[in-house]
């Protein structure tokens, strides 16, 4: 009986040893499969990664702010316009803003800046320009190196146009990925989204109705998203821009750039 017990014990030990060895092999294989699969997706080192390689990270100040609105009790609002400049629409926006002495923040696409610099040259005094990528690709699909190269190219185009390197980034579609965050940190950007978006498709051929909707929803610190490029339906918002400005002023609001709203070191540009 003792002999049998010892025999079974040896078999058990052998079986367990084989299971452990097999488990180690499976684990190693699984780890390798995970690594290969996620490189192919890619996640590791891809759009989801917030680091670039294994060395010291070159990330500017080492921190990144992401904001949707300004934290203020004052009746301040920032108008922002994405995707330009373009000769068909941007001058219309600039004309309206100049007429009413309203500053705004334009998140410009670098390739558009290169093509249409003359549209906005010498017309941006009092306004602010932020980076909106080079060609409006979805940066959340790029790895860290690609996202940085894209943003750097646009950064340089905007700096050449304005004489001031942009300090703000709004990624196309508002899409964020780890690689976008890493690239933005490298460029010492503040990442700006929005808290209220113009909704042109809800007000076809009704600029006044659209303006009333926006005016009613603005709160202190609101960052409003608009566009000075795009489908023709967006013209509903631009044609109602004067009503929007007048409506917000009647509610006691003052228009400022995004940086002024967020308390950046640049002086606030008001409308009074």
UniProtKB/TrEMBL annotation:
One of its GO terms (molecular function) is hydrolase activity, acting on carbon-nitrogen (but not peptide) bonds. This is Polysaccharide deacetylase family protein. InterPro entries: Glyco_hydro/deAcase_b/a-brl, NODB_dom, Polysacc_deacetylase_ArnD, TAT_signal. GO terms for biological process: carbohydrate metabolic process. Residues 75-256 form the NodB homology domain. It comes from Micromonospora arida. It comes from the Bacteria. Gene3D superfamilies: Glycoside hydrolase/deacetylase. CDD domains: CE4_NodB_like_6s_7s. Coiled coil: none annotated.
């Amino acid at each position: 009986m003792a002999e049998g017990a010892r025999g079974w014990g040896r078999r058990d030990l052998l079986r367990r040893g084989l299971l452990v060895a097999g488990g180690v092999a499976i684990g190693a294989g699984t780890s390798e499969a995970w690594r290969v699969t996620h490189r192919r997706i890619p996640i590791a080192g891809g759009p989801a990664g917030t680091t670039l390689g294994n060395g010291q990270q070159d990330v500017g100040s080492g921190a990144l702010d992401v904001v949707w609105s300004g934290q203020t009790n004052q009746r301040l609002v920032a108008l922002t316009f994405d995707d330009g400049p373009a000769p068909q629409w941007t001058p219309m926006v600039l004309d309206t803003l100049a007429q009413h002495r309203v500053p705004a923040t334009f998140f410009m696409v670098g390739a558009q800046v290169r093509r249409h610099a003359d549209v906005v040259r010498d017309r941006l005094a009092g306004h602010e320009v932020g980076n909106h990528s080079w060609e409006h690709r979805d940066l959340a699909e790029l790895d860290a190196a690609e996202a940085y190269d894209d943003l750097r190219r646009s950064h340089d185009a905007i700096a050449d146009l304005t004489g001031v390197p942009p300090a703000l980034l709004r990624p196309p579609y508002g899409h964020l990925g780890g690689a976008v965050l890493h690239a933005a940190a490298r460029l010492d950007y503040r990442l700006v989204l929005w808290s209220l978006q113009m909704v042109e498709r809800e007000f076809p051929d009704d600029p006044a109705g659209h303006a009333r909707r926006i005016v009613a929803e603005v709160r202190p610190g609101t960052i409003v998203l608009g566009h000075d490029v795009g489908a023709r339906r967006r013209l509903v918002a631009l044609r109602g821009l004067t009503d929007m400005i007048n409506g917000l002023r009647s509610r006691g609001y003052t228009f400022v750039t995004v940086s002024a709203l967020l308390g950046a070191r640049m002086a606030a540009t008001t409308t009074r």
